[in-house]
Design a protein that fits this description.
With 278 residues, the protein is α+β, with helices and mostly antiparallel strands. The chain is built from eight helices and twelve strands. Helix 2 packs antiparallel against helix 3, helix 4 runs antiparallel to helix 5 and helix 7 packs antiparallel against helix 8.
Length: 278
Protein backbone atom coordinates (compact mmCIF):
# COMPACT_ATOMS: atom_id res chain seq x y z
CA UNK A 1 0.00 0.00 0.00
CA UNK A 2 1.39 3.38 -1.00
CA UNK A 3 1.76 6.21 1.55
CA UNK A 4 -1.29 8.27 0.35
CA UNK A 5 -3.45 5.16 0.49
CA UNK A 6 -2.20 4.40 4.02
CA UNK A 7 -3.07 7.94 5.09
CA UNK A 8 -6.60 7.67 3.69
CA UNK A 9 -7.07 4.31 5.41
CA UNK A 10 -5.92 5.78 8.71
CA UNK A 11 -8.42 8.61 8.37
CA UNK A 12 -11.28 6.28 7.51
CA UNK A 13 -10.60 3.68 10.20
CA UNK A 14 -12.21 5.59 13.11
CA UNK A 15 -15.33 6.27 11.06
CA UNK A 16 -15.54 2.60 10.08
CA UNK A 17 -15.19 1.47 13.69
CA UNK A 18 -17.88 3.91 14.79
CA UNK A 19 -20.21 2.62 12.04
CA UNK A 20 -19.65 -0.98 13.19
CA UNK A 21 -20.37 0.07 16.79
CA UNK A 22 -23.63 1.81 15.81
CA UNK A 23 -24.71 -1.18 13.71
CA UNK A 24 -24.13 -3.39 16.71
CA UNK A 25 -26.33 -1.12 18.81
CA UNK A 26 -29.08 -1.30 16.21
CA UNK A 27 -28.89 -5.08 16.04
CA UNK A 28 -29.03 -5.38 19.82
CA UNK A 29 -32.20 -3.34 19.82
CA UNK A 30 -33.66 -4.56 16.58
CA UNK A 31 -37.02 -5.71 17.98
CA UNK A 32 -40.07 -3.68 16.97
CA UNK A 33 -40.06 -0.37 18.83
CA UNK A 34 -37.04 -1.38 20.92
CA UNK A 35 -33.74 0.16 21.94
CA UNK A 36 -31.20 -1.07 24.46
CA UNK A 37 -33.02 -2.28 27.56
CA UNK A 38 -36.59 -1.50 26.45
CA UNK A 39 -39.28 -2.62 24.07
CA UNK A 40 -42.48 -0.73 23.27
CA UNK A 41 -45.78 -1.28 21.51
CA UNK A 42 -49.10 0.53 21.19
CA UNK A 43 -52.51 0.00 19.64
CA UNK A 44 -56.02 1.46 19.73
CA UNK A 45 -59.53 0.96 18.36
CA UNK A 46 -62.38 3.35 17.73
CA UNK A 47 -64.92 0.86 19.15
CA UNK A 48 -68.50 1.87 18.37
CA UNK A 49 -67.81 5.59 18.53
CA UNK A 50 -67.85 7.98 15.57
CA UNK A 51 -64.62 9.70 16.61
CA UNK A 52 -61.33 8.38 17.93
CA UNK A 53 -60.65 10.51 21.02
CA UNK A 54 -57.71 8.49 22.40
CA UNK A 55 -54.15 9.57 21.64
CA UNK A 56 -50.79 8.28 22.76
CA UNK A 57 -47.12 9.09 22.38
CA UNK A 58 -43.78 7.46 23.14
CA UNK A 59 -40.52 9.33 23.61
CA UNK A 60 -37.34 7.24 23.66
CA UNK A 61 -34.64 8.72 25.87
CA UNK A 62 -30.94 8.08 26.19
CA UNK A 63 -31.43 5.55 29.02
CA UNK A 64 -35.17 5.10 29.22
CA UNK A 65 -38.56 5.71 27.67
CA UNK A 66 -41.54 7.96 28.43
CA UNK A 67 -45.04 6.92 27.38
CA UNK A 68 -48.24 8.95 27.62
CA UNK A 69 -51.88 8.04 26.95
CA UNK A 70 -54.75 10.54 26.80
CA UNK A 71 -58.47 9.76 26.67
CA UNK A 72 -60.39 12.76 25.35
CA UNK A 73 -63.97 13.78 26.09
CA UNK A 74 -66.00 16.54 24.49
CA UNK A 75 -68.16 17.74 21.63
CA UNK A 76 -67.39 18.78 18.04
CA UNK A 77 -64.01 17.00 18.11
CA UNK A 78 -63.14 18.78 21.37
CA UNK A 79 -62.15 15.50 23.03
CA UNK A 80 -59.93 14.49 20.12
CA UNK A 81 -58.17 17.85 20.12
CA UNK A 82 -57.77 17.81 23.90
CA UNK A 83 -56.15 14.35 23.86
CA UNK A 84 -53.80 15.20 21.00
CA UNK A 85 -52.83 18.48 22.68
CA UNK A 86 -52.04 16.69 25.95
CA UNK A 87 -49.80 14.17 24.21
CA UNK A 88 -47.96 16.95 22.37
CA UNK A 89 -47.27 18.69 25.67
CA UNK A 90 -45.65 15.58 27.18
CA UNK A 91 -43.58 14.84 24.10
CA UNK A 92 -42.34 18.42 24.10
CA UNK A 93 -41.33 18.41 27.77
CA UNK A 94 -39.57 15.04 27.49
CA UNK A 95 -37.91 16.09 24.25
CA UNK A 96 -35.32 17.52 26.62
CA UNK A 97 -33.21 14.66 27.99
CA UNK A 98 -32.81 16.59 31.26
CA UNK A 99 -36.53 16.12 31.97
CA UNK A 100 -35.92 12.50 32.97
CA UNK A 101 -33.67 13.54 35.87
CA UNK A 102 -36.54 15.18 37.79
CA UNK A 103 -39.64 13.15 36.85
CA UNK A 104 -42.09 14.72 39.29
CA UNK A 105 -41.22 18.27 38.23
CA UNK A 106 -41.32 17.30 34.55
CA UNK A 107 -44.67 15.53 34.89
CA UNK A 108 -46.14 18.54 36.68
CA UNK A 109 -44.78 20.85 33.96
CA UNK A 110 -46.30 18.66 31.23
CA UNK A 111 -49.71 18.37 32.93
CA UNK A 112 -49.98 22.09 33.59
CA UNK A 113 -48.75 22.90 30.09
CA UNK A 114 -51.31 20.51 28.60
CA UNK A 115 -54.09 22.08 30.65
CA UNK A 116 -53.20 25.61 29.55
CA UNK A 117 -52.83 24.66 25.90
CA UNK A 118 -56.15 22.77 25.81
CA UNK A 119 -58.00 25.77 27.25
CA UNK A 120 -56.25 28.03 24.75
CA UNK A 121 -56.86 25.88 21.66
CA UNK A 122 -60.44 24.94 22.41
CA UNK A 123 -61.38 28.51 23.32
CA UNK A 124 -64.75 27.67 24.81
CA UNK A 125 -65.43 24.45 22.88
CA UNK A 126 -66.23 21.61 25.27
CA UNK A 127 -63.24 19.28 25.54
CA UNK A 128 -60.95 17.73 28.13
CA UNK A 129 -58.84 14.61 28.65
CA UNK A 130 -57.77 12.00 31.17
CA UNK A 131 -54.01 11.53 30.99
CA UNK A 132 -51.53 9.07 32.44
CA UNK A 133 -47.79 9.08 31.76
CA UNK A 134 -45.03 6.69 32.75
CA UNK A 135 -41.26 7.08 32.70
CA UNK A 136 -39.16 3.92 32.80
CA UNK A 137 -35.56 4.78 33.56
CA UNK A 138 -32.75 2.88 35.21
CA UNK A 139 -34.99 -0.05 36.22
CA UNK A 140 -37.39 2.36 37.93
CA UNK A 141 -40.98 3.25 37.04
CA UNK A 142 -42.24 6.80 37.66
CA UNK A 143 -45.85 7.65 36.84
CA UNK A 144 -48.39 10.45 37.11
CA UNK A 145 -52.10 10.57 36.31
CA UNK A 146 -55.16 12.79 36.07
CA UNK A 147 -58.50 11.22 35.23
CA UNK A 148 -59.26 7.56 34.59
CA UNK A 149 -56.47 6.27 32.34
CA UNK A 150 -54.79 3.50 34.32
CA UNK A 151 -51.15 2.54 34.72
CA UNK A 152 -50.43 -1.07 35.67
CA UNK A 153 -47.44 -3.41 35.98
CA UNK A 154 -47.47 -7.03 34.84
CA UNK A 155 -45.05 -9.42 36.50
CA UNK A 156 -45.21 -12.87 38.04
CA UNK A 157 -48.39 -13.62 36.10
CA UNK A 158 -50.33 -10.73 37.65
CA UNK A 159 -51.39 -7.36 36.23
CA UNK A 160 -51.47 -4.91 39.15
CA UNK A 161 -52.78 -1.33 38.88
CA UNK A 162 -50.39 1.28 40.27
CA UNK A 163 -52.56 4.37 39.69
CA UNK A 164 -55.95 4.89 41.37
CA UNK A 165 -57.58 7.43 39.07
CA UNK A 166 -59.79 10.45 39.68
CA UNK A 167 -63.28 8.99 39.61
CA UNK A 168 -65.89 9.43 42.30
CA UNK A 169 -65.59 5.72 43.20
CA UNK A 170 -61.79 5.98 43.61
CA UNK A 171 -62.23 9.09 45.76
CA UNK A 172 -64.79 7.24 47.91
CA UNK A 173 -62.34 4.41 48.56
CA UNK A 174 -59.63 6.90 49.50
CA UNK A 175 -61.88 8.84 51.87
CA UNK A 176 -63.10 5.61 53.49
CA UNK A 177 -59.50 4.47 54.08
CA UNK A 178 -58.77 7.87 55.65
CA UNK A 179 -61.80 7.49 57.91
CA UNK A 180 -63.62 10.44 56.36
CA UNK A 181 -66.53 8.36 55.00
CA UNK A 182 -68.50 5.62 56.66
CA UNK A 183 -68.61 2.18 55.04
CA UNK A 184 -72.20 2.77 53.95
CA UNK A 185 -71.38 6.16 52.43
CA UNK A 186 -68.41 4.73 50.55
CA UNK A 187 -70.36 1.75 49.21
CA UNK A 188 -73.06 4.07 47.87
CA UNK A 189 -70.44 5.81 45.71
CA UNK A 190 -68.41 2.84 44.47
CA UNK A 191 -70.34 2.44 41.21
CA UNK A 192 -69.98 6.09 40.23
CA UNK A 193 -67.37 6.46 37.52
CA UNK A 194 -67.87 10.17 36.93
CA UNK A 195 -64.58 12.09 36.79
CA UNK A 196 -63.79 14.87 39.21
CA UNK A 197 -60.39 15.72 37.75
CA UNK A 198 -58.91 15.98 34.22
CA UNK A 199 -56.85 18.33 32.05
CA UNK A 200 -58.69 21.05 30.18
CA UNK A 201 -60.45 22.83 33.03
CA UNK A 202 -59.96 26.04 34.97
CA UNK A 203 -58.32 25.48 38.32
CA UNK A 204 -56.66 22.20 37.39
CA UNK A 205 -54.16 21.22 40.07
CA UNK A 206 -54.67 17.63 41.26
CA UNK A 207 -52.11 15.17 39.88
CA UNK A 208 -51.62 11.64 41.18
CA UNK A 209 -47.89 10.99 41.54
CA UNK A 210 -45.84 7.95 42.47
CA UNK A 211 -45.00 7.95 46.18
CA UNK A 212 -41.70 6.25 45.51
CA UNK A 213 -40.43 4.87 42.18
CA UNK A 214 -41.45 1.26 41.52
CA UNK A 215 -38.47 -1.08 41.14
CA UNK A 216 -38.33 -3.17 37.98
CA UNK A 217 -36.16 -6.27 37.79
CA UNK A 218 -36.41 -7.16 34.10
CA UNK A 219 -39.17 -8.88 32.17
CA UNK A 220 -42.00 -6.70 33.52
CA UNK A 221 -44.52 -4.91 31.33
CA UNK A 222 -45.77 -1.42 32.13
CA UNK A 223 -49.24 -0.97 30.65
CA UNK A 224 -51.12 2.30 30.13
CA UNK A 225 -54.77 1.70 29.20
CA UNK A 226 -57.87 3.79 28.67
CA UNK A 227 -61.16 2.84 30.32
CA UNK A 228 -62.38 1.54 26.98
CA UNK A 229 -59.94 -1.35 27.45
CA UNK A 230 -60.04 -2.12 31.16
CA UNK A 231 -63.77 -1.39 31.34
CA UNK A 232 -64.55 -3.87 28.56
CA UNK A 233 -61.96 -6.67 28.65
CA UNK A 234 -61.73 -9.11 31.53
CA UNK A 235 -58.65 -8.65 33.68
CA UNK A 236 -57.71 -12.34 33.35
CA UNK A 237 -57.88 -12.09 29.55
CA UNK A 238 -55.50 -9.14 29.62
CA UNK A 239 -53.08 -11.14 31.79
CA UNK A 240 -53.28 -14.02 29.31
CA UNK A 241 -52.40 -11.64 26.45
CA UNK A 242 -49.35 -10.39 28.32
CA UNK A 243 -48.25 -13.92 29.20
CA UNK A 244 -48.54 -15.10 25.59
CA UNK A 245 -45.87 -15.19 22.91
CA UNK A 246 -44.81 -12.21 20.84
CA UNK A 247 -43.18 -8.83 21.16
CA UNK A 248 -44.71 -5.73 22.71
CA UNK A 249 -46.45 -4.64 19.53
CA UNK A 250 -48.01 -8.08 19.07
CA UNK A 251 -49.28 -8.01 22.65
CA UNK A 252 -50.65 -4.49 22.30
CA UNK A 253 -52.63 -5.65 19.25
CA UNK A 254 -53.89 -8.67 21.21
CA UNK A 255 -55.08 -6.48 24.09
CA UNK A 256 -57.08 -4.27 21.75
CA UNK A 257 -58.52 -7.30 19.96
CA UNK A 258 -60.17 -8.21 23.28
CA UNK A 259 -62.30 -5.09 22.80
CA UNK A 260 -62.86 -5.62 19.07
CA UNK A 261 -64.11 -9.17 19.71
CA UNK A 262 -66.23 -8.17 22.69
CA UNK A 263 -70.01 -8.43 22.45
CA UNK A 264 -70.42 -5.46 24.82
CA UNK A 265 -72.86 -2.80 23.69
CA UNK A 266 -71.63 0.69 22.80
CA UNK A 267 -67.91 -0.04 22.99
CA UNK A 268 -65.81 3.00 23.77
CA UNK A 269 -62.50 3.99 22.20
CA UNK A 270 -59.82 1.73 23.68
CA UNK A 271 -56.04 2.13 23.76
CA UNK A 272 -53.02 0.31 25.15
CA UNK A 273 -49.40 1.45 25.41
CA UNK A 274 -46.96 -1.21 26.52
CA UNK A 275 -43.35 -0.89 27.69
CA UNK A 276 -41.21 -3.92 28.53
CA UNK A 277 -38.16 -3.61 30.74
CA UNK A 278 -35.68 -6.21 29.47
Amino acid sequence: MRVPEMAVAALLAPAFLYLVFRMGQVLLGSGRGMRAGFEVGASKTIGDRETQEDAFGIRELEDGVMAVLADGMGKSFGGKLAAETAVEAFLQVFGDEAAAYNPQYSFRKAFNGANREILKRLNGVQGCASVTAALVKGRKLYYAAAGDVKAAVYRGGELVPVSSGHTISALARQKYEEGRLTREEALSLLDRHRLYNFVGRDGFKDIEFFDTPISLYGGEYVLLMSDGLYGTARWKDMEDCLEGAGDCQTKAYALIELVNRSQAADRDNASAVLVKCR
